Amino acid sequence: MAETFPFELVSPERLILSEDVIQVLIPASEGQMTVMKNHAPAMTTVKPGLVVVKRADGSEETIFVEGGFADINDNGLSLLAEIAMLTSELDSETLAARLKHAQDAVNEAEGDAKDVAGLHLSDLEHIKNSLAL
Description:
CATH class of the largest domain: Mainly Beta
CATH superfamily of the largest domain: F0F1 ATP synthase delta/epsilon subunit, N-terminal
Number of strands: 10
Order of helices and strands: EEEEEEEEEEHH
CATH topology of the largest domain: ATP Synthase, domain 1
CATH architecture of the largest domain: Sandwich
Oligomer: single chain
Radius of gyration: 15 Å
Number of domains: 2
């Protein structure tokens, strides 16, 4: 049986999840990152995506996040998300509103900011397709 470690995911509105888990998949800005017990210390920014949490009993929880950062250290993993919600709470209207907000940001941005906004929009579109919402 794999060893567990403490994981906490917090958004400005609430504590989303706080428990001991065996694995967490993070949508890090440089690519997907899997964290397990005794992971090397690291900090990374988080892009829009799905955090997949695997519990010791084998069950999984999937959480939508939109930006933030993750801190991996001897005390476990803390993920502070700008926006976060369980995918079971995410509906097509909420995601459509996030997509519209991202599209508006692309339309209003200039230069390098337009590229960053476009990547954000692309990440959200990928999530929509992944969740079939």
